[in-house]
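Hypothesis: this fold can be encoded by more than one sequence.
Test: take the structure tokens below, design a sequence, compare later.
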């Protein structure tokens, strides 16, 4: 699974953790989680409305998180994304983060290859 973040906002940072899982996976086999860190670098509490997988192949990815409904100034949480391809070929989706941090929703591009 390949994660690319096309997002730069002055109050939030998103970064993939080290150790990315393989970018291909057999159909219906669950990948190890890719852990993405969401950090509130602002000086006020971030209110989080939702964190969900969206996009054309959203059914091929799952996301769970430790973020809750708010994130204090300087605090961080984890978003765990798994790839579970239902078809062969390139699969793509986004993790969409809706919040009050401006520029919402922020999106993390996801892609993987089902084999």
């Amino acid at each position: 699974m390949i994660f690319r973040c096309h997002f730069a906002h002055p109050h939030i940072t998103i970064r993939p953790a080290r150790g990315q899982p393989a970018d291909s996976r057999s159909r219906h086999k669950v990948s190890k989680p890719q852990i993405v860190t969401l950090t509130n670098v602002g000086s006020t509490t971030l209110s989080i409305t939702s964190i969900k997988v969206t996009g054309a192949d959203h059914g091929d990815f799952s996301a769970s998180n430790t973020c809750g409904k708010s994130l204090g100034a300087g605090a961080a949480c984890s978003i765990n994304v798994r790839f579970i391809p239902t078809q062969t070929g390139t699969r793509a989706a986004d993790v969409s983060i809706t919040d009050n941090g401006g520029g919402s929703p922020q999106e993390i591009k996801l892609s993987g290859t089902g084999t």
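Confidence is low (pLDDT under 50) at residues 1-10, 17-22. The chain has one domain: 2-114.
Hypothesis status: open.
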